[in-house]
């Protein structure tokens, strides 16, 4: 009798495990997974209200380019201008925030920067953000950087600005810089 009871329990368990209930469990878990995964939308062309004059075809660029620019920021803060030379191409173009334009040898640029930096006892850049980018259609690399620059002149006057700069690099060397600046008003 015990054997018959054990045999009956085994058959009931076997039936329970192999019944359509298992199929429903699998179906339910599949539905649950599908509900958790993000819905993939077909890519659609976006019609922008403007056409970019330079490019609108960018991707994230080489992180080493960002490091090059950030290293220059540190050297500028420290007043170590001569150490910047290896990061620049032979000829550099620089558009300053006041609209003035420089295009000359990197040695000439560094002489000018040395004179500028010499007017300040301290300069401290607090970098807000940076991003290296690559223009696919132009095959050019840039680093965009945002910073707060706090300057104390040799006379002890402190002022600060919000900066946005675009640094173009060719073969790892900086050859062009665009600078935008907003003075921070004293409170």
What does this structure look like?
By secondary structure, this protein is of the alpha+beta class. The protein has a domain of 126 residues: Nuclear Transport Factor 2, Chain: A, CATH 3.10.450. The chain is 34% helix and 37% strand. It has four helices and seven strands; from the N terminus they run ααβαββαββββ. The protein has a seven-stranded mixed sheet with strand order 1-4-5-6-7-2-3, covered by helices on one side. It starts with a helix and ends with a strand.
Considering the chains and any ligands shown, give keywords for the structure.
187 residues, disordered N terminus, single chain, alpha+beta, globular, Nuclear Transport Factor 2, Chain: A
Task: Give a nutshell description of this structure.
The protein is an alpha+beta fold and 187 residues long. Helix content is 34%, strand content 37%. It has helices spanning 2-18, 20-36, 63-78, 106-118; strands spanning 58-60, 88-95, 101-105, 120-135, 140-153, 158-170, 173-183.
């Amino acid at each position: 009798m015990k054997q018959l009871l054990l045999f009956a329990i085994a058959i009931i368990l076997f039936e329970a495990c192999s019944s359509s209930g298992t199929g429903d469990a699998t179906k339910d878990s599949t539905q649950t997974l599908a509900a958790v995964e993000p819905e993939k939308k077909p890519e659609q062309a976006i019609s922008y209200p403007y056409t970019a004059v330079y490019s609108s075809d960018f991707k994230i660029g080489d992180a080493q380019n960002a490091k090059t620019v950030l290293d220059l920021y540190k050297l500028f803060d420290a007043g170590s201008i001569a150490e910047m030379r290896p990061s620049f191409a032979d000829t550099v173009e620089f558009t300053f925030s006041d609209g003035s334009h420089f295009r000359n040898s990197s040695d000439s640029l560094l002489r000018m920067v040395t004179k500028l930096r010499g007017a300040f006892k301290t300069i401290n850049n607090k970098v807000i953000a940076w991003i290296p980018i690559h223009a696919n259609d132009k095959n050019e690399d840039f680093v965009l950087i945002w910073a707060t620059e706090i300057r104390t002149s040799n006379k002890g006057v402190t002022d600060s600005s919000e900066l946005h700069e675009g640094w173009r690099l060719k073969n790892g060397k900086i050859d062009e810089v665009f600078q935008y600046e907003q003075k921070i008003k004293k409170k």
